[in-house]
Specification:
The protein has helices at residues 7-27, 34-41, 45-51, 55-78, 84-101, 103-112, 118-143, 147-161, 176-199, 216-223. It is mostly helical.
Length: 230
Amino acid sequence: MPRGPSSAHSLQRDTILNVSADAFAEAGYPSATMAALAERCGVSKSLLYHYYPAKDAILFDLMHEYMQRLQALVGEVAAQALPAQQALAEVVRRFVREYETSRTRHIVLLNDVKFLPAPERAIVIKQEREVVQAFADLIAATYRIDPARAKVLTMSVFGMINWTFTWLKPGGALTYAQFAETVVGMLEGGLSGGAARMKSFAPLVPDVGHTPLDSDAAAVKSNLKELHHV
């Protein structure tokens, strides 16, 4: 029987993906060379090539696994068989929580799909569309509207939560969990519903030591146009 990858191999691979996500998010995918990635990982360039034959292979693995995680979140909620409105709220909470812990992967997903080779890009975009459709199905069931209008509302929700990395910072006015509840409040009661939930949160102590990524502001300007491919 063939042996699967060892735990050491998997650990090294995870390290490469984590470091690469940080590097791509900070410097941009085109600027991050294999030599620079190897140096950041603390391994030789030849060892990096042992795990990944090219930089776009790292990019695909990173995006593909991240999208699998988002798809799994939808599946986990679906398995609970909640009423549509509760399921929608829970999916929003889980996605925002994932965005907090996978911030650099999310930046890379939004910015760098265009750098994948066509076959791999098609796989990731298909995954994105499946996630969007799952959201749209929940919205259609919750608000009893047709699929086309549900898609419009779905993209509006993603517009609220997908770009949090550009402005929702640790130590700010809201935690990610509180922001998720605010979005749920807006879905259920408009801006007044969101504001009502905000008023219930205890004030936070500002984190004056946090410095955002230099690329965050530029990402908003240069990548809003990428939303059309989903």
